[in-house]
Amino acid sequence: MKRFKKYVEGRNDLFIPFIMSGDPNEQATIELAVELQDRGANVIELGIPYSDPLADGPVIQEAASRSLKNNTTLESSIKSVKKMREKGLKIPVIIFTYYNLLLQLGEDYFFALARENEVDGILVPDLPYEEGEHLRALCEKEGLALISLVAPTTSEERLQQIAGNASGFLYCVSSLGVTGVRSEFHASVFAFLEKVKKYSSAPVAVGFGVSKAEQVEALKESCDGVIVGSALIKRVASHEADLQDPKTREKAIKQIGDFAAALTAPYRTEKLST
Amino acid sequence: MATQVPDRRGRFGRYGGKFVPETVMHALEELEAALNKFMADEAFLHDFQEELREFSGRPTPLTFAKKMTERLNGAKIYLKREDLNHTGAHKLNNAIGQALLAKRMGKEKIVAETGAGQHGVAAATVAARYGLECKVFMGEEDIERQALNVFRMKLLGAEVVPVKSGSKTLKDATNEAIRYWVSNVEDTFYLIGSVVGPHPYPKMVRDFQRVIGDEAREQFFNRENKMPDCIVACVGGGSNAIGTFYPFLDDESACVGVEAAGKGIDTPQHAATLTKGSLGVIHGSLTYLLQDEAGQIQEPYSISAGLDYPGIGPEHSYLKDSKRVEYVSITDDEALDALTLLSQEEGIIPAIESAHALAEAFKRAKEMNKHETILVCLSGRGDKDVHTLMKTMGGEAH
């Protein structure tokens, strides 16, 4: 939790990018993580490709398919975090994995790997609070953040419980459905965020559909940060050929970095003016 | 007692549970509340029973397979005739139950997944009867292979949505149906086709399908004045098997679930989840499943489209561990032989799925004595398979 203290706690301008491990190859993922840090990211959410990603829309599904072609696994992905650290990555890294992959790797082995490779937390999108008791206890013992999610449909009672026990940051799902780019948010999201912030013991970040600077601007006052996944992954997909070629990779990564910087510009203008 | 599961958390022993995204949790809570309310509501149960009778044609008969029994010269074989339900399989029992529940919950739309199209047809059928809008998700591969059922669903007024993700088969259609449901949960009910998925689905589908076993138990007792020595049913997700076994679990009858061994359980081409699979999470449930070492879910294979599911209902995993039910597997070839035999001896063309159960029952009957009895769930009729059979058998019945 050391890195969370330094880079996340107490902030209200968090930029949390989601990138797919091994999409389109390990080296690109490593370099992209470092680039995103340089462009203002506070946490890297490292997605692990899965054959049956229930919570994800088509953009992330396709990224998973691309990555699975490289035989990316949970284990190889955790090990790549160490390589990111060697390249200068200082911010927290969250492993975003479906539960089955974690089960097959084994929880004990996961924690040993996480320690060795300097992973800071884990997010399991198909492990709701009620099923997470065991993992929560292990994370606490190991000093890892277990990132919880809340959705607009989460009942008041569960919201209090989940938000009250949040560690690292609380992932607030902006709207119903799966991950993916959305043009705008429903107005009710603001009332929802207000409620979540009241109960949350950790910074509140909004994800699902964040793809434009205007959205970041609109959300700025209502939450502590944004999670950007599909919008970034789309750029990775459109630069796939360049990311595969070592000669053009650096340039492609810079271009994705430019997109990330433009998207989160509303945070920086504030940072500059204060 | 084997009958007192699941617990409040939806666990059958260690199996089952709710391994779903947070966005699904509210819908499951809502469903659970409705289920608790209406399964104790006499008017609802009356409607369900009436529809089973008047629309599906229940009770289905228990047929003594006289010639097969004579031919095998062993245990007496009885068939529970789920093939005589409207739409040709046990699937409609569950579809009626869930559609009536959807109506009671005020939902206007249903969404369903289908592999071969049997559950999709059942869903489209009840949607037509009860005035619900119906979307059926179906893998692109399956749409191509099952053109007749696709047409049936459309004729019944349903929209068939092609699924292009993943391997484009049943498991991906299920993922896509769940994704759609999550996005449209306010007015949409997810009508699942088997005893799989997150709690309370496995329990709900069991409770709608137990009518098979409840009827069979009474019919069998009236006929033989005792309980069957052995009960056999095929298992894909496992709804006809649970429906058949469940009312007998506190009796002495041996229960045998038959999985699809495809081209053989020592080849990669099978769907024998309990025989060859390992513990994991699929479609919201902790259960046995077919996966690689890293935990990626594998594509199963069986000639029978209704059995090639990479997971299995969590209650089956529980019944396997507790040894109350024995699970075995039957190959494509064995099933086809049994299908031919039943057609020619009894004048009943069974579904290829059900033929797996028959093949196992025939094997056992030979080894049992004439005072003993076997009850087989004949879960569906074979009309839907005629095209596959013609291709496989080269157009020549033998």
UniProtKB/TrEMBL annotation, chain B:
UniProt record similarity statement: Belongs to the TrpB family.
Organism domain of life: Bacteria
Organism lineage string: Bacteria, Bacillati, Bacillota, Bacilli, Bacillales
Job description of the protein: The beta subunit is responsible for the synthesis of L-tryptophan from indole and L-serine.
Enzyme class: lyase
Reactions performed catalytically: (1S,2R)-1-C-(indol-3-yl)glycerol 3-phosphate + L-serine = D-glyceraldehyde 3-phosphate + L-tryptophan + H2O
Gene Ontology CC: cytoplasm
Underlying gene: trpB
Residue ranges annotated for the Tryptophan synthase beta chain-like PALP domain, each copy included: 57-380
Record has Cytoplasm as a keyword: no
Source species: Exobacillus caeni
Entry protein name: Tryptophan synthase beta chain
Pfam families attached to this UniProt entry: PALP
Keywords: Amino-acid biosynthesis, Aromatic amino acid biosynthesis, Lyase, Pyridoxal phosphate, Tryptophan biosynthesis
Names of the cofactor(s): pyridoxal 5'-phosphate
HAMAP family in alphabetical order: Trp_synth_beta (MF_00133)
A GO term for molecular function: tryptophan synthase activity
